[in-house]
Specification:
The chain is α+β, with helices and mostly antiparallel strands. The protein is 30% helix and 31% strand. The protein is built from 11 helices and 21 strands. The chain has helices spanning 80-95, 126-136, 147-159, 181-191, 208-217, 231-243, 349-353, 357-380, 384-401, 404-410, 432-440; strands at 3-4, 11-17, 21-22, 28-38, 63-70, 101-107, 111-115, 122-123, 165-172, 196-202, 222-225, 247-255, 261-269, 273-274, 280-281, 286-294, 297-306, 315-326, 332-345, 414-418, 423-426. Strands 5, 6, 7, 8, 9, 10 and 11 form a 7-stranded mixed beta sheet that branches. A 6-stranded antiparallel beta sheet has the order 1-2-4-17-13-14, covered by helices on one side. Residues 1-7 and 42-61 have low confidence and may be disordered.
């Protein structure tokens, strides 16, 4: 394990958990990589402290946030929904610390600047927070939904500030009916890496895969707020988390030797997120996988590498993991933390067949996320047997791994007969909010039980 330390900056560390022993002919190496950032000391301060990693940024301009509020016609049904959205946005604005750049966007089939206007961002202080909350009173429902236009406006506004961390918060209550899926995809591709974004669906008339897809592409979180009355608490929590971010655009760099092939790289905690296809080349035998912005937190990644076959007694370095951040001159800076993935060939059957507990746990958590999605898709298509089998397996995995939150959500969709065996019956009637909550939160994982 290595640490990186600078004044007012988080220290990053990397720990690798694996069974490095392979049987004769064995080629697949699995490792869980735990990345931890601690001791930043800037979260919640009255003004953002300097970010030593990002050159060219002034110390009082480290964070910019854009809040995108759905103002489509459906936000008037019931009328309390729009009021709850205004109250939640006001609560988020109150959570902004002084010196943070921010804007509020009203979203319909077009995107409108609610505050401050003029294609710019405001700088948070008592006066601008009050002005922004006054401007929220003008928000009213009417029009369609074209989320890509909201995100493009957010990107333009956020990029106007000389800051190191750019973040969006997006709220929608409906489906993206006024632009094509291709247009939204193109927008997400254009915005990826430029800012992170948390996405929330309020009520039950929105499309889960749209909202989770936005959050996934922009390395943020997704969730359902089934009851609009809970929006203020959720928005406050999201903004507090955004205020705690201290290092942007951290990438997991994986170097592998000649003759190896990377089977996959995925985040496995706190949520499952596939990163394999997001690799950007970073020199000979190295590639970078984006992880977004970091505060004081810890995340786990599963790396799987295929190595050349070797003789008994041989060993090799299968991969080297480090953390890097981009610099304004186009180069990258190494954060100093490093982890090694090894392969050792042995005829010790017990050593070579033992599965590392972390690897086994997160393989199960990734399967849990997958079978929930497959089970719910089968249920929607009327495939009762398929849905029962997949959701039964999900119950079994959630029970075995101690993922009690997911187990409780599953119990609202199926009647559990035997959790350990995965024996379930589909419920005849399921509340739409319960099914959507299970689908939205299906990728949330629990860490290995100590």
């Amino acid at each position: 394990m290595a640490n990186f330390s600078k004044s007012n900056a988080p220290q990053f560390s990397v720990d690798v958990y694996q069974n490095e022993y392979l049987p004769e002919g064995g080629r697949e190496v699995n490792a869980i990589v735990t990345v931890t950032a601690t001791g930043g000391g800037t979260g919640g301060s009255a003004a953002a402290a300097p970010r030593p990693y990002a050159s060219g940024h002034s110390p009082d301009a480290a964070v910019a946030v854009a809040v995108m509020v759905d103002c489509s016609g459906s936000m008037d049904y019931p009328p309390t929904k729009m009021r709850n959205a205004r109250d939640a946005t006001a609560a988020a604005i109150d959570t902004l610390r002084d010196g943070v750049h921010f804007a509020v966007i009203g979203g319909t089939h077009v995107a409108k600047e609610v505050y401050p206007g003029g294609g710019r961002l405001a700088v948070a202080d008592a006066r601008t927070r009050d002005q922004a909350k006054q401007a929220l009173r003008k928000l009213s429902a009417g029009g369609g939904t074209a989320i890509g236009t909201w995100l493009r406006l957010a990107d333009r506004l956020l990029s106007s500030a000389d800051v190191s961390i750019r973040h969006g918060i997006l709220l929608t209550d409906g489906r993206n009916e006024h632009e094509s899926p291709q247009d939204l995809r193109a927008t997400l591709d254009a915005c990826a890496g430029r800012f992170t974004c948390d996405a929330r669906g309020v009520g039950t008339d929105w499309e889960v895969k749209e909202v989770t897809g936005i959050a996934s592409a922009l390395l943020g979180t997704a969730d359902i707020v089934a009851d609009p009355a809970a929006l203020s608490e959720d928005f406050t929590q999201m903004m507090e988390t955004a205020m705690g971010k201290e290092v942007a655009d951290v990438a997991l760099r994986l170097w592998t030797p000649v003759g190896t092939a990377i089977k996959f790289v995925k985040q496995v905690a706190p949520t499952v997120e596939e990163l394999t296809d997001r690799r950007t080349e970073a020199g000979p035998r190295a590639g970078d996988y984006p992880t977004g912005s970091w505060g004081d937190e810890s995340r786990d990644y599963h790396v799987c590498v295929e190595v050349p076959a070797a003789s008994l007694g041989q060993e090799m370095l299968a991969g080297r993991i480090s953390l890097v951040v981009p610099q304004s001159d186009g180069s990258t800076q190494n954060l100093g933390a490093q982890g090694l993935v090894r392969a050792v060939w042995t005829d010790d059957m017990e050593a070579s067949t033992s599965i590392n507990p972390q690897v086994a746990h997160y393989t199960g958590q990734a399967e849990l996320a997958q079978v929930i999605q497959q089970g719910l898709d089968a249920r929607k298509s009327g495939d009762v047997d398929g849905a029962t089998a997949k959701l039964g397996r999900a119950v079994q995995l959630a029970s075995a791994s101690g993922n009690t939150d997911t187990a409780k959500l599953l119990a609202k969709v199926v009647d559990v007969v035997d959790a350990a065996a995965g024996t379930v019956r589909l419920k005849a009637k399921v509340e739409e909010a319960d099914e959507m909550t299970l689908e939205t939160r299906s990728t949330k994982t629990v860490r290995v039980k100590k």
